[in-house]
Write a structure and sequence with these properties.
The structure is a homodimer of 200-residue chains.
Chain A lengths: L3 E6 L5 H13 L3 E6 L16 E2 L5 E3 L2 E2 L12 E4 L3 H8 L2 H12 L3 E5 L4 H5 L6 E2 L6 H4 L4 E2 L4 E4 L2 E4 L5 H13 L1 H8 L11
Parallel strand pairs in A: 1-2, 1-6, 2-5, 6-7, 7-11, 8-9
Antiparallel strand pairs in A: 3-4, 10-11
Helix pairs in contact in A: 1-6, 6-7
Protein backbone atom coordinates (compact mmCIF):
# COMPACT_ATOMS: atom_id res chain seq x y z
CA UNK A 1 0.00 0.00 0.00
CA UNK A 2 1.31 3.42 -0.99
CA UNK A 3 1.06 5.80 2.02
CA UNK A 4 -1.22 8.80 1.53
CA UNK A 5 -0.80 12.35 2.83
CA UNK A 6 -3.10 15.36 3.00
CA UNK A 7 -1.41 18.78 3.14
CA UNK A 8 -3.62 21.74 4.01
CA UNK A 9 -3.14 25.15 2.38
CA UNK A 10 -4.90 28.51 2.80
CA UNK A 11 -4.39 32.13 1.85
CA UNK A 12 -1.32 33.20 3.83
CA UNK A 13 0.28 29.75 4.08
CA UNK A 14 4.10 29.87 4.19
CA UNK A 15 4.86 28.64 0.67
CA UNK A 16 8.31 27.20 1.49
CA UNK A 17 6.91 25.06 4.31
CA UNK A 18 4.04 23.87 2.11
CA UNK A 19 6.22 23.18 -0.92
CA UNK A 20 9.16 21.52 0.86
CA UNK A 21 6.79 19.15 2.68
CA UNK A 22 4.63 18.28 -0.33
CA UNK A 23 7.56 17.86 -2.74
CA UNK A 24 9.62 15.74 -0.30
CA UNK A 25 6.64 13.45 0.38
CA UNK A 26 6.14 12.98 -3.37
CA UNK A 27 9.86 12.17 -3.74
CA UNK A 28 9.33 9.49 -1.07
CA UNK A 29 6.56 7.89 -3.12
CA UNK A 30 3.76 9.16 -0.86
CA UNK A 31 0.48 9.86 -2.66
CA UNK A 32 0.04 13.50 -1.68
CA UNK A 33 -3.01 15.78 -1.99
CA UNK A 34 -3.28 19.48 -1.12
CA UNK A 35 -6.62 20.77 0.21
CA UNK A 36 -7.61 24.43 0.31
CA UNK A 37 -9.07 25.64 3.61
CA UNK A 38 -11.29 28.70 3.27
CA UNK A 39 -11.22 31.53 5.78
CA UNK A 40 -14.74 31.02 7.16
CA UNK A 41 -14.43 34.11 9.37
CA UNK A 42 -14.68 36.34 6.30
CA UNK A 43 -18.19 35.09 5.48
CA UNK A 44 -17.29 35.16 1.78
CA UNK A 45 -16.69 31.70 0.33
CA UNK A 46 -14.68 31.12 -2.80
CA UNK A 47 -15.85 28.65 -5.42
CA UNK A 48 -13.20 29.07 -8.12
CA UNK A 49 -12.28 25.83 -9.87
CA UNK A 50 -9.55 25.03 -9.17
CA UNK A 51 -9.20 27.07 -5.99
CA UNK A 52 -6.10 29.24 -5.71
CA UNK A 53 -4.16 30.12 -2.56
CA UNK A 54 -2.17 33.36 -2.30
CA UNK A 55 0.67 32.42 0.01
CA UNK A 56 2.53 34.53 2.59
CA UNK A 57 5.16 35.98 0.21
CA UNK A 58 2.86 36.28 -2.80
CA UNK A 59 3.36 32.94 -4.58
CA UNK A 60 -0.01 31.70 -5.87
CA UNK A 61 -0.54 27.94 -5.71
CA UNK A 62 -3.43 25.88 -7.15
CA UNK A 63 -4.43 23.32 -4.48
CA UNK A 64 -5.63 19.92 -5.65
CA UNK A 65 -9.05 20.02 -3.92
CA UNK A 66 -11.19 22.05 -1.54
CA UNK A 67 -10.96 20.90 2.07
CA UNK A 68 -14.04 18.91 3.04
CA UNK A 69 -14.21 17.07 6.37
CA UNK A 70 -16.08 14.11 4.86
CA UNK A 71 -13.43 13.58 2.15
CA UNK A 72 -10.33 14.22 4.27
CA UNK A 73 -10.68 11.83 7.20
CA UNK A 74 -8.18 9.35 8.67
CA UNK A 75 -9.79 6.52 6.68
CA UNK A 76 -8.51 8.30 3.53
CA UNK A 77 -4.99 9.39 4.55
CA UNK A 78 -2.11 8.28 6.78
CA UNK A 79 -0.78 11.77 7.46
CA UNK A 80 -2.29 15.24 7.92
CA UNK A 81 0.06 18.23 7.52
CA UNK A 82 -0.65 21.75 8.80
CA UNK A 83 1.92 24.26 7.52
CA UNK A 84 2.67 27.68 8.99
CA UNK A 85 2.44 31.24 7.77
CA UNK A 86 0.64 33.43 10.32
CA UNK A 87 -2.56 34.07 8.38
CA UNK A 88 -2.88 30.58 6.89
CA UNK A 89 -2.26 28.91 10.25
CA UNK A 90 -4.86 31.16 11.89
CA UNK A 91 -7.43 30.18 9.24
CA UNK A 92 -6.71 26.48 9.79
CA UNK A 93 -6.42 26.49 13.57
CA UNK A 94 -9.68 28.42 14.03
CA UNK A 95 -11.63 26.29 11.54
CA UNK A 96 -13.95 23.94 13.50
CA UNK A 97 -13.69 21.18 10.87
CA UNK A 98 -9.88 21.31 10.90
CA UNK A 99 -9.94 21.03 14.71
CA UNK A 100 -12.23 18.00 14.39
CA UNK A 101 -9.97 16.52 11.70
CA UNK A 102 -6.88 16.85 13.93
CA UNK A 103 -8.65 15.03 16.77
CA UNK A 104 -9.84 12.23 14.46
CA UNK A 105 -6.34 11.60 13.08
CA UNK A 106 -4.82 11.57 16.57
CA UNK A 107 -7.53 9.22 17.88
CA UNK A 108 -7.17 6.85 14.91
CA UNK A 109 -3.41 6.82 15.47
CA UNK A 110 -2.66 8.38 12.07
CA UNK A 111 0.15 10.96 11.85
CA UNK A 112 -0.50 14.68 12.40
CA UNK A 113 2.35 17.06 11.48
CA UNK A 114 2.42 20.80 12.23
CA UNK A 115 5.16 23.29 11.46
CA UNK A 116 5.77 26.92 12.46
CA UNK A 117 2.51 28.68 13.42
CA UNK A 118 0.68 25.53 12.27
CA UNK A 119 1.32 24.16 15.79
CA UNK A 120 -1.44 26.49 17.03
CA UNK A 121 -3.86 23.84 15.75
CA UNK A 122 -2.67 21.49 18.52
CA UNK A 123 -4.03 24.00 21.03
CA UNK A 124 -7.27 24.85 19.21
CA UNK A 125 -7.98 21.13 18.74
CA UNK A 126 -7.42 20.73 22.51
CA UNK A 127 -4.82 17.98 22.21
CA UNK A 128 -3.40 16.57 25.44
CA UNK A 129 -0.31 18.13 27.02
CA UNK A 130 2.74 16.59 25.34
CA UNK A 131 6.11 17.65 23.87
CA UNK A 132 5.73 20.15 21.00
CA UNK A 133 7.59 22.91 19.18
CA UNK A 134 6.59 25.80 16.90
CA UNK A 135 7.87 29.02 15.41
CA UNK A 136 9.33 31.17 18.22
CA UNK A 137 6.74 33.88 17.41
CA UNK A 138 3.89 31.71 18.77
CA UNK A 139 5.78 30.05 21.65
CA UNK A 140 3.99 32.24 24.23
CA UNK A 141 0.61 30.94 23.04
CA UNK A 142 1.65 27.29 23.44
CA UNK A 143 4.05 26.96 26.36
CA UNK A 144 1.32 26.86 29.03
CA UNK A 145 -0.52 23.93 27.44
CA UNK A 146 2.35 21.80 26.11
CA UNK A 147 5.82 20.64 27.13
CA UNK A 148 7.46 23.21 24.89
CA UNK A 149 10.73 22.21 23.19
CA UNK A 150 13.17 24.14 21.00
CA UNK A 151 14.30 21.08 19.05
CA UNK A 152 14.08 21.40 15.25
CA UNK A 153 11.62 18.48 15.02
CA UNK A 154 9.68 16.98 17.94
CA UNK A 155 8.08 13.53 17.60
CA UNK A 156 5.49 12.83 20.33
CA UNK A 157 3.83 9.52 19.42
CA UNK A 158 1.83 10.45 16.30
CA UNK A 159 2.14 14.26 16.66
CA UNK A 160 5.16 15.68 14.83
CA UNK A 161 5.96 19.40 15.17
CA UNK A 162 8.67 21.68 13.80
CA UNK A 163 9.81 25.32 13.82
CA UNK A 164 9.95 27.16 10.51
CA UNK A 165 11.16 27.19 6.89
CA UNK A 166 14.72 26.46 8.06
CA UNK A 167 13.62 23.18 9.69
CA UNK A 168 11.17 22.17 6.93
CA UNK A 169 13.53 19.74 5.19
CA UNK A 170 14.28 17.90 8.44
CA UNK A 171 10.53 17.87 9.21
CA UNK A 172 9.63 16.51 5.77
CA UNK A 173 12.37 13.86 5.80
CA UNK A 174 11.18 12.74 9.26
CA UNK A 175 7.67 12.29 7.82
CA UNK A 176 9.06 10.27 4.89
CA UNK A 177 10.96 8.07 7.35
CA UNK A 178 7.88 7.50 9.53
CA UNK A 179 5.70 6.61 6.51
CA UNK A 180 8.22 4.83 4.26
CA UNK A 181 11.22 3.81 6.39
CA UNK A 182 14.79 4.99 6.81
CA UNK A 183 16.02 3.48 3.54
CA UNK A 184 13.57 5.58 1.51
CA UNK A 185 14.48 8.64 3.59
CA UNK A 186 18.14 8.23 2.57
CA UNK A 187 17.19 7.62 -1.06
CA UNK A 188 15.23 10.88 -1.06
CA UNK A 189 17.83 12.87 0.86
CA UNK A 190 20.85 12.12 -1.38
CA UNK A 191 19.74 13.78 -4.63
CA UNK A 192 18.63 16.91 -2.73
CA UNK A 193 22.38 17.69 -2.28
CA UNK A 194 22.48 19.20 1.22
CA UNK A 195 25.65 21.12 2.10
CA UNK A 196 28.39 19.16 3.88
CA UNK A 197 27.96 19.08 7.68
CA UNK A 198 24.19 19.61 7.48
CA UNK A 199 23.01 18.47 10.94
CA UNK A 200 20.29 16.05 9.78
CA UNK B 1 15.98 51.98 -4.87
CA UNK B 2 14.40 48.63 -4.09
CA UNK B 3 16.31 45.85 -5.92
CA UNK B 4 14.29 43.89 -8.47
CA UNK B 5 14.50 40.20 -9.34
CA UNK B 6 13.06 38.08 -12.14
CA UNK B 7 12.63 34.35 -11.39
CA UNK B 8 11.87 32.12 -14.37
CA UNK B 9 9.46 29.17 -14.09
CA UNK B 10 8.29 26.51 -16.57
CA UNK B 11 6.46 23.21 -16.56
CA UNK B 12 8.80 20.83 -14.73
CA UNK B 13 10.55 23.48 -12.61
CA UNK B 14 11.71 22.17 -9.21
CA UNK B 15 9.11 23.84 -6.99
CA UNK B 16 11.29 23.93 -3.84
CA UNK B 17 14.11 25.73 -5.66
CA UNK B 18 11.66 28.20 -7.22
CA UNK B 19 9.75 28.82 -3.99
CA UNK B 20 12.72 29.06 -1.60
CA UNK B 21 14.43 31.59 -3.89
CA UNK B 22 11.34 33.72 -4.58
CA UNK B 23 10.13 33.73 -0.96
CA UNK B 24 13.58 34.52 0.49
CA UNK B 25 14.06 37.41 -1.96
CA UNK B 26 10.65 38.83 -0.96
CA UNK B 27 11.63 38.50 2.72
CA UNK B 28 14.73 40.56 1.88
CA UNK B 29 12.57 43.34 0.45
CA UNK B 30 13.43 42.54 -3.18
CA UNK B 31 10.64 43.30 -5.66
CA UNK B 32 10.27 39.85 -7.21
CA UNK B 33 8.43 38.76 -10.36
CA UNK B 34 8.00 35.22 -11.72
CA UNK B 35 7.85 34.77 -15.50
CA UNK B 36 6.52 31.66 -17.25
CA UNK B 37 8.73 30.28 -20.02
CA UNK B 38 6.84 28.21 -22.56
CA UNK B 39 8.26 25.02 -24.03
CA UNK B 40 8.66 26.27 -27.60
CA UNK B 41 9.81 22.83 -28.79
CA UNK B 42 6.27 21.47 -28.39
CA UNK B 43 4.89 23.88 -31.02
CA UNK B 44 1.76 24.34 -28.89
CA UNK B 45 1.70 27.66 -27.06
CA UNK B 46 -0.38 28.29 -24.00
CA UNK B 47 -2.34 31.50 -23.59
CA UNK B 48 -4.17 30.89 -20.31
CA UNK B 49 -4.51 33.99 -18.15
CA UNK B 50 -2.85 33.77 -15.74
CA UNK B 51 -0.48 31.07 -17.02
CA UNK B 52 0.02 28.06 -14.74
CA UNK B 53 3.14 25.95 -14.32
CA UNK B 54 2.95 22.29 -13.32
CA UNK B 55 6.15 21.79 -11.37
CA UNK B 56 8.36 18.70 -11.08
CA UNK B 57 6.51 17.06 -8.16
CA UNK B 58 3.04 18.15 -9.22
CA UNK B 59 2.59 21.47 -7.40
CA UNK B 60 0.84 23.94 -9.71
CA UNK B 61 2.00 27.56 -9.45
CA UNK B 62 0.50 30.66 -11.08
CA UNK B 63 3.42 32.76 -12.40
CA UNK B 64 3.07 36.55 -12.33
CA UNK B 65 3.63 37.12 -16.07
CA UNK B 66 4.56 35.39 -19.31
CA UNK B 67 8.25 35.58 -20.14
CA UNK B 68 8.87 38.18 -22.86
CA UNK B 69 12.42 39.21 -23.81
CA UNK B 70 11.42 42.85 -24.32
CA UNK B 71 9.88 43.11 -20.82
CA UNK B 72 12.50 41.10 -18.91
CA UNK B 73 15.80 42.78 -19.75
CA UNK B 74 18.61 43.98 -17.48
CA UNK B 75 17.22 47.54 -17.60
CA UNK B 76 14.17 46.18 -15.69
CA UNK B 77 15.77 43.85 -13.10
CA UNK B 78 18.96 43.50 -11.06
CA UNK B 79 18.88 39.71 -10.85
CA UNK B 80 17.80 36.88 -13.16
CA UNK B 81 17.19 33.46 -11.52
CA UNK B 82 17.05 30.14 -13.41
CA UNK B 83 15.85 27.30 -11.15
CA UNK B 84 16.33 23.59 -11.76
CA UNK B 85 14.05 20.63 -12.30
CA UNK B 86 15.19 18.60 -15.32
CA UNK B 87 12.31 19.43 -17.66
CA UNK B 88 11.96 23.09 -16.64
CA UNK B 89 15.70 23.70 -16.93
CA UNK B 90 15.73 22.07 -20.38
CA UNK B 91 12.91 24.34 -21.56
CA UNK B 92 14.75 27.42 -20.29
CA UNK B 93 18.26 26.52 -21.39
CA UNK B 94 17.15 25.62 -24.93
CA UNK B 95 14.99 28.75 -25.34
CA UNK B 96 16.84 31.22 -27.64
CA UNK B 97 15.38 34.26 -25.86
CA UNK B 98 16.46 32.95 -22.44
CA UNK B 99 19.98 32.39 -23.80
CA UNK B 100 19.97 35.99 -25.11
CA UNK B 101 18.65 37.24 -21.75
CA UNK B 102 21.44 35.49 -19.82
CA UNK B 103 24.06 37.11 -22.07
CA UNK B 104 22.49 40.56 -21.70
CA UNK B 105 22.44 40.36 -17.89
CA UNK B 106 26.05 39.17 -17.76
CA UNK B 107 27.19 41.90 -20.18
CA UNK B 108 25.34 44.63 -18.27
CA UNK B 109 26.92 43.37 -15.04
CA UNK B 110 23.58 42.43 -13.48
CA UNK B 111 23.38 39.21 -11.41
CA UNK B 112 22.54 35.85 -13.01
CA UNK B 113 21.79 32.99 -10.62
CA UNK B 114 21.34 29.34 -11.64
CA UNK B 115 20.65 26.35 -9.43
CA UNK B 116 20.61 22.57 -10.03
CA UNK B 117 20.00 21.75 -13.72
CA UNK B 118 19.41 25.49 -14.27
CA UNK B 119 23.21 25.78 -14.65
CA UNK B 120 22.83 24.21 -18.11
CA UNK B 121 21.79 27.69 -19.28
CA UNK B 122 25.37 28.89 -18.67
CA UNK B 123 26.49 26.46 -21.36
CA UNK B 124 23.64 27.05 -23.82
CA UNK B 125 24.17 30.83 -23.49
CA UNK B 126 27.87 30.20 -24.25
CA UNK B 127 29.18 32.00 -21.18
CA UNK B 128 32.96 32.17 -20.76
CA UNK B 129 34.80 29.42 -18.85
CA UNK B 130 34.61 30.26 -15.14
CA UNK B 131 33.92 28.57 -11.80
CA UNK B 132 30.45 26.99 -11.66
CA UNK B 133 28.46 24.26 -9.92
CA UNK B 134 25.22 22.38 -10.64
CA UNK B 135 23.22 19.35 -9.64
CA UNK B 136 25.54 16.29 -9.81
CA UNK B 137 23.22 14.75 -12.46
CA UNK B 138 24.32 17.34 -15.05
CA UNK B 139 27.98 17.68 -14.01
CA UNK B 140 29.13 15.64 -17.04
CA UNK B 141 27.48 18.14 -19.40
CA UNK B 142 29.27 21.11 -17.80
CA UNK B 143 32.71 20.04 -16.61
CA UNK B 144 34.38 20.40 -20.03
CA UNK B 145 33.31 24.02 -20.46
CA UNK B 146 33.60 25.40 -16.92
CA UNK B 147 35.87 25.18 -13.88
CA UNK B 148 33.51 22.77 -12.15
CA UNK B 149 33.22 23.07 -8.36
CA UNK B 150 31.33 20.99 -5.78
CA UNK B 151 30.84 23.91 -3.39
CA UNK B 152 27.22 24.51 -2.30
CA UNK B 153 27.21 28.01 -3.80
CA UNK B 154 29.75 29.37 -6.29
CA UNK B 155 30.07 33.12 -6.87
CA UNK B 156 32.01 33.98 -10.05
CA UNK B 157 31.74 37.77 -10.49
CA UNK B 158 28.06 38.21 -11.38
CA UNK B 159 27.29 34.51 -12.07
CA UNK B 160 26.05 32.65 -8.98
CA UNK B 161 25.45 28.89 -9.20
CA UNK B 162 24.28 26.24 -6.74
CA UNK B 163 23.50 22.50 -6.51
CA UNK B 164 19.96 21.49 -5.58
CA UNK B 165 17.00 21.88 -3.20
CA UNK B 166 19.30 21.20 -0.23
CA UNK B 167 21.49 24.21 -1.11
CA UNK B 168 18.60 26.50 -2.11
CA UNK B 169 18.44 28.41 1.20
CA UNK B 170 22.18 29.16 1.10
CA UNK B 171 21.82 30.19 -2.57
CA UNK B 172 18.85 32.48 -1.85
CA UNK B 173 20.49 34.08 1.20
CA UNK B 174 23.63 34.72 -0.88
CA UNK B 175 21.47 36.53 -3.45
CA UNK B 176 19.83 38.62 -0.69
CA UNK B 177 23.27 39.53 0.63
CA UNK B 178 24.56 40.53 -2.82
CA UNK B 179 21.48 42.69 -3.51
CA UNK B 180 20.71 44.04 -0.03
CA UNK B 181 23.81 43.59 2.15
CA UNK B 182 24.84 41.30 4.98
CA UNK B 183 22.68 43.03 7.60
CA UNK B 184 19.49 42.29 5.65
CA UNK B 185 20.69 38.73 5.06
CA UNK B 186 20.95 38.19 8.83
CA UNK B 187 17.57 39.85 9.41
CA UNK B 188 16.00 37.44 6.91
CA UNK B 189 17.87 34.37 8.15
CA UNK B 190 16.93 34.61 11.86
CA UNK B 191 13.14 34.14 11.64
CA UNK B 192 13.58 31.18 9.28
CA UNK B 193 14.82 29.20 12.34
CA UNK B 194 17.55 27.01 10.85
CA UNK B 195 18.67 24.05 13.00
CA UNK B 196 21.68 24.61 15.27
CA UNK B 197 25.01 24.00 13.51
CA UNK B 198 23.60 24.72 10.06
CA UNK B 199 26.75 25.37 7.99
CA UNK B 200 25.68 28.73 6.47
Amino acid sequence: MVPRALVLIADGTEEMEFTITYDTLVRGGVSTVSAFVQDVSSGVLNSEQPPSATCSRGIRILPDVYFDLAQCGPDMYDLLVIPGGAKGAETMSKHPSVQELVRRYIERNKLVAMICAGSLAAKSAKLARQPLTSHPSVKAELEQDFDYSEDAVVVSDNLITSRGPGTAFQFALTLVEMLCGSEIRERVRGPMVFPQNTPF
